[in-house]
Amino acid sequence: MPAQAEGKAAAPALSAPQKALHKLGLVRDIDLALHLPLRYEDETRIVTLRGARDGQLAQIEGTVTNSEITQRPRRQLLVTLDDGTDTCTLRFFTFYPAHQKTLALGQRVRVRGELRGGFLGWTMVHPAFHAAGGELPDALTPVYPTSAQLPQAYLRKVVASGLRRADLGENLPPALLGGLNAVVRGTWTLRDALQFLHHPGADVSLDALEDRSHPAWQRLKAEELLAQQLSQFTARQERAALSAPALRAKPGGLHEQLLGVLPFALTTAQRRVGEEIARDLMRQIPMHRLLQGDVGSGKTVVAALAAAIAIDAGWQCALMAPTEILAEQHFAKLIGWLEPLLAPLGKRVAWLTGSQKKKQRGEMLALIASGEAALVVGTHAVIQDQVVFKNLALAIIDEQHRFGVAQRLALRGKMGAGMTGGEPHLLMMTATPIPRTLAMSYYADLDVSTIDELPPGRTPIVTKVVADSRRAEVIERIRSQLAQGRQVYWVCPLIEESEALDLSNATATHAELSESLPGVLVGLLHSRMPVAEKKAVMSLFTGGQMGVLVSTTVIEVGVDVPNASLMVIEHAERFGLSQLHQLRGRVGRGAAASACVLLYTPPDSGRLGETARERLKAMAETSDGFEIARRDLEIRGPGEFLGARQSGAPLLRFADLATDTHLLEWARAAAPVMLAEYPQQAEKHIARWLGGKAEFLKA
After folding, report:
1. pLDDT class for 406, splitting at 50, 70, 90?
2. 540 and 595 housed in the same domain
3. 637 lies in some domain
4. Looking at the domain assignment, is residue 420 inside a domain?
5. Which of 12, 70, 295, 682 stands 20 to 30 A from 168 (CA)?
6. Which domain holds residue 204?
7. Are 193 and 270 members of one domain?
């Protein structure tokens, strides 16, 4: 065995229960104190069988009058318990000699389980049991989230021990406690709240505990939200201490020239957000702005105008998109708008993706390093080590929720040798509008700009929810659209057969539509196709030669074909709400009346699940992206919107953005005060709640 490095002792090996605790994230005493029960069992009272009701979860005490092992219909231990008012049969299919000893004839035992009444009297299947005696507990018994390696009895013991040792001193200054007590509806300290939630008295309303409306829960949730807000405001402060180049549009320069050559007028909303971004770029503090706008609201042109300001000031700009199709579409638009204006300046637009040939890639890398490429558009390839910018000043990330923390940090780190200790300005874009509560919590470190107006000429999209049994009618509708010279998308959730998910796949649907629509060019597009093949298919569809495009969700964002007027989404019940809305946004981009058909397949039961029904109902009722986002937050929680933004960081464990807005508003107001006036207590509060995870909230 190799000798230990001098001065370093080997870390003691962890026992199996300790490993299981670590796996659950229970490392510090405060972690144990904050590991709250899933539910509670009431062992504070004993019920008589005479007074019991069918289906009741009850604790009874009595004497064993019979205990035997039977073999029919299967091996089981049957025990008869008499509590003096009636008898109950206890049935065990798994049992050990120790169980038989405790449940032997004549023993007095206390059992707890679900009582079932029937023709043969009361029964309990696999109740919890132990020898009778000892005082009844005066508090409800907690049942904790656990794993197979951690029995409840062990977990209760270590949680109680952690709760005793944890530093639960008051972090909040008296100046903030008054406001907190008002929103919590009571004067609970953190220690009181945790002590109560681990061991609530028998007279407490289980409903108030389970729906988390009890003041003890409210105190805990307010503390959690405050830690999150403090972390976000700290990230904002740290960024304010960094430097970024001040970028200003020149009179008569690229920005003005671009406005002059655009083939359309900007909407009021586009002009407003453009001015917000321009003001940020003039400051020497890195911009950290989220540009949100519904599908088709015109975010790309706002990004182009921001890029023009950076290039005008003599710096480089990078735009990163999650898919090659989307990156290519941006590239085509930006080339069309900017390249004619850049050529007289000796500047170019560069293109970077993972599928490029080595020679072309080398040429692009040289253009970027020399600064001749003023604008770089691409996929994840933009952040690879070989990509060296001469002087990057503005990074634009489209569909930001598709990228992880590390990827966003890598793009921010591409500043170039000339700006040590500095950061580029960062503009993130999303076509999934962020609900207000989410913007206040997980995006509190960002400035948010909203394009809340669609360009003129956009036609409303009619959305129909149709059962798959009416598939023939849908194909007939496609035939009618094609006869009018229109084009159609048909989106499928899977590429190939799966036994686990009996879904129609893109390949089979492509074959079916090709057969049903003779003389029509039906294309197929999915993520596993070679890049050249994908480009050829998209080129035929955007050029109008292809009537129907059968695709997986690779066409979810950014694809712009104004002549497409019908979107069919197969197995719509399998998609998320924001994804359905994104797909619907691929049509309605021209003057023709457009429709979206949500084709669903009911399960064998004939009824869709509650969540799927709610999603399809929301899609049929509204086309407003902000209303869709609000409903999606209600249905699915915040994870859908955050995507990989929080990769590795916890979502809120206790607070619920749908019901705890009043606590979030208090935390949002309290955080800047605490940071400014009580910085040490703020730091201690972040450490208590987030440990080392606060870093993830800063990306």
Report:
1. low
2. yes
3. no
4. yes
5. 12
6. 168-243+666-691
7. no
Does some domain include residue 119? yes
Q: What is the pLDDT of residue 627?
A: 81
Which of 127-136, 326-335, 503-512, 554-563 has the highest mean predicted lDDT (pLDDT)? 127-136
Of the candidates 401, 418, 451, which is a domain's last residue? 451
pLDDT class of 585 with cuts at 50, 70, 90: confident
Q: Report whether pLDDT(426) > 60.
A: yes
Query: What long-range pairs does 166-172 form, CB within 8 A, spacing at least 24?
Result: 166/28, 166/29, 166/30, 166/32, 166/33, 167/29, 167/30, 167/688, 168/30, 168/33, 168/194, 171/681, 171/684, 171/685, 171/688, 172/226, 172/674, 172/681, 172/685
What lies within 8 Å, CB to CB, of 95 at 6+ separation is 76, 77
Residue 7 lies in a domain: no
Comparing C-alpha atoms, which of 166, 643, 163, 119 is closest to residue 400?
A: 643
State mean pLDDT over 264-289.
Answer: 93
Length of the chain (residues): 699
pTM of the model: 0.70
At 559 the pLDDT is 66
Mean pLDDT of the chain: 83
At 639, the amino acid letter reads G
**CB-side exposure of 690: number of CA atoms within 13 Å?**
28
b or e along 181-199 (b: 16 or more beta carbons within 10 Å of the residue's beta carbon)? eebbeeebebeebbbbbbb
For position 405, what pLDDT does the model report? 52
What mean pLDDT is predicted for residues 515-544? 86
Q: How many CB atoms lie within 10 A of CB 252?
A: 9
Report the number of distinct structural domains present in the chain. 4
Burial class (CB in 10 A: 0-12, 13-18, 19+), 219: buried
Q: How far apart are CA 489 and CA 461, in angstroms?
A: 14
Task: Supply the pLDDT for residue 411.
Answer: 65
Pair 271, 179 in one domain: no
Considering only CA atoms, which of 448, 441, 487 is closest in space to residue 642? 441
* Alpha carbon distance 24, 32 (integer Å): 10
> Of the candidates 622, 640, 656, which is a domain's last residue?
622
Q: What is the pLDDT of residue 241?
A: 82
> At residue 38, does pLDDT exceed 90?
no
32 and 161 in contact (C-beta within 8 Å)?
yes
pLDDT at 401: 55
Which CATH number do you get for residue 576?
3.40.50.300
Is the same domain home to 339 and 279? yes
Candidate from 9-18, 91-100, 125-134 with smallest mean pLDDT: 9-18
Same-domain status, 219 and 267: no
Q: At what angle do helices 506-516 and 471-483 cross, to 10 degrees?
A: 60
Q: How far apart are CA 58 and CA 438, in angstroms?
A: 42
Could you tell me if 528 and 404 lie in one domain? Answer: no
405 close to 699: Cβ distance less than 8 angstroms: yes
